Every structure is written in structure tokens, then in C-alpha cells.
Amino acid sequence: MSTSATPHARLLIVDDEAAQMKALCHTLEDEGYAATGFTSAAAALKALQPDEFDLVLTDLQMPEMDGITLLRAAQEIDRSLLGIVMTGHGAIDTAVEAMKAGALDYILKPFKLSAIVPVLSRALAVRRLRIENAELHQRVTERTVELEAANKELEAFSYSVSHDLRAPLRHINGYAEILLKEIGDTLDERSLGHLKTITGTVVQMQQLIESLLDFSQLGRVGVNQSTVDLEFLVQDAIAGLETEIAGRNIVWKKAPLPSVQGDPFLLKQVFVNLLSNAIKYTRPRDPARIEIDCANGTGDEIVVSIRDNGVGFDMAYSAKLFGVFQRLHHAKEFEGTGIGLANVQRIIARHGGRIWGESVLNEGATFSFALKKAPRGCQPHLPSREAVFEP
Question: Is the omega angle on the peptide bond into residue 383 within 30 degrees of 0, that is, cis?
């Protein structure tokens, strides 16, 4: 049986009526297809090898094996093989049942080329899409494995570097303190200032290391979804910030807050960080004003906003807000490591939410985040006061 030099597709044709099988093979070969025909279903299955054919066209009713059984057996041999059944006008219901069992389409006898070619074209288009989707899925799977491995290596590297940096810092700090104790009284003011700068820098570096460890560990903390009472969560977060609030004149304003779907321990850290920032950056204000508001977002979202009348920031640098070690104020003015907002963004992202900040310099800032509302009738989970990370 001849085949085209550049066939449209490779067809396996099975029909127990030899004359019809041969006629169909010749007709489709003239159209540019490579056709191989069999009158025996068993012989066709014996000849079938994986990735040898693109489509199988089988008669629905055959004495040795019906078309549905043949299709199922053929697809066990080659998962990518698509099947089309051939049947008479009186058996259309049976052809539909064959499609439910795995056939992609059917062709009616007696054959008409004008009806066959569109069916073959559709089937081949579906096959191409399935193969492309399978290849894409395979690439995505491989890339996901690579990214997971890279993330694990990065987290391990961050932890190792942070851990290994602690020892020399302890030595530097220890020897600097020994010098201060032993010869501090004999040093002039400039030299004493140098030593104090060393110890202060060591403390700052230790804080950076702790923050880096927090950021690294956050990627390994699981998100335990439950219904979370934001009212309780905010009260608990504020109670944990008592030492930062002590002695301050702060006017609090809080709207009623709903329950959301999320991890109570991680979401508490979001409030701890954002409220701690509001308390810190309103330090020059008397009174300081901090407002916690809530509004409906798009769809099933709620948007929580924390607004203050602090020093604010320049929106020209807003793209840096959530970057690791990114700070928009000098460390001499306001302490910090630049990790807090990066942690907050990571937590919100892991909840499928979004976060953004808005500000007018010297007029305050507003940080807002959107989360999914809790399903109605769900009991909220109340977290303990133990935070996942230190504020």
C-alpha cells in the first residue's frame, strides 16, 4: 500500500469488509494521508506500536471484536492515539455511546470524502493540542521541580550564611566590649566613639541576620487555613506592642473587622509588622493617629487598611517598599532592617491576597491588603499570643 511522501497524518484503518477498507485507504492516500488497513482487529492490535499512528478509524460492529473494545485496547498501547468510529446511519446512537467510551468522533457509511476530511482535520487538531499540552505540562513540572530545588538551596544557603556569620560577630562584639572595659577610661573621645560604632554596627548586623533568617524560614512555614477573627487578631497584636506604645500619645480609631480565611498566626504577624511601623513612623507626632479600617473589595475580598499621620514616604520610591533590605528612611532616624514589609508581602501572597502602600511625604501613610472573606457560618479560630516571628 502506497503512502504520500509528506503525509498529513498516519492512519490505522480497521474494517472487516475488505472492499470498504481498501477503498477508504486508497481515497485517503490520494488526499495525502498515510493509511494502513486491516480487516482483523486482532491483527491491527498486533501490528500497533507506540507513536506509530496518529489516528485509528475502526468499524463499530465487527464479528471478531467491536470497535469500542478495539479503541480501548489500542489506547492502552498508545496513550496519544485518537479514535474515530465508522458506522451506518442506523447505529448513530451506538456511535454516540462509543464517543462516551473514548472515541473522539464518528463517520457515517457509506463514506463521503466531504464528510470524512473535516472529521480527520478536527481529530488531528485535537491530537496536536493534547500533545502540546502534555509537553507544556512536562516542562512546567520540570521547571517546578527545578524552582523548588533552587528555593531549597537558596533557603539552605541563607540559613547557612546567617548561622556562620553569627560566630565572627560574637567575637567582634566580645573583643570590643573587652577593650571598652579594660582601656575605655584611657581613650580619647574620638577613639571611644570608634569603639562604640563597632559595637553598634555589630548589633545592627545581628538584627539583619535575624531578619534574614525570619524571611528564609517564612518560605518553610505551612499555611494552615481556617476562619480568622480579625477583631481578636488586632487586639492581640496591639497587646504585644505595649513596650513600643508606652509613654506615647496615640489616638486609635478602629472600624469593625470581619472574619477572613487564612492562617491566624501568619496573619497576626502582618498586623504586628504594619502596626509596629505605624507606631514607629508616627514617633515625631503628638498626638499620633493610627486608624484601622475595613471595606469590601472585588468579589469575595475584604480590604483592610492601616492609616497613620506619620512621616510617610515618597511615592516615587514605592516600588522598593516590599523589597528585602529596602528602606526609605535613614537608620539614624528610624531603626529597622527592611525585612518587615517583605515578610508581610510574602504572607499576604501565600494567602492569595495582595498588598499595597500609599503616602504623601510628611502627611502619613496607608498600607492596605486584600484577603478572602470567611465562608458564612464558620467559627473563627483564635490564635495564641505567641508570634511566629519577633516583631
Answer: no
354-391 CB burial, b ≥16 within 10 A, e <16: ebbbebeeeebbbbbbbbbbbeeeeebbebeeebbbeb
pLDDT at 7: 56
Q: Are residues 241 and 250 in contact, defined by beta-carbon separation less than 8 angstroms?
A: no
What does the DSSP 8-state code read for residue 367? E
State the Rg of the chain over Cα.
Answer: 35
**With the C-alpha atoms ordered 135, 141, 147, 153, is the resulting torsion angle positive or negative?**
negative
User: Which pLDDT score is estimated for 89?
Assistant: 63
Length of the chain: 391
For residue 379, is it within any domain? no
Question: What pLDDT sits at residue 2?
Answer: 41
Domain housing 100: 10-111
User: Which pLDDT value is given to residue 26?
Assistant: 92
The total domain count for the chain is 3
Pair 56, 194 in one domain = no
DSSP label at 126? H
Q: What is the CATH number of the domain that holds 265?
A: 3.30.565.10
CB 55 within 8 A of CB 120: yes
CB-CB contact of 14 with 70 (8 Å): yes
pLDDT at residue 22 greater than cutoff 80 = yes
List beta partners, residue 106: 85
Dump pLDDT digits (tens) for 211-269. Answer: 667 666 666 666 678 888 899 999 888 888 888 888 899 999 999 988 888 888 889 88
Percent of the chain with pLDDT over 90: 18
- Give the tens place of pLDDT for each residue, 201-219: 888 777 777 766 766 666 6
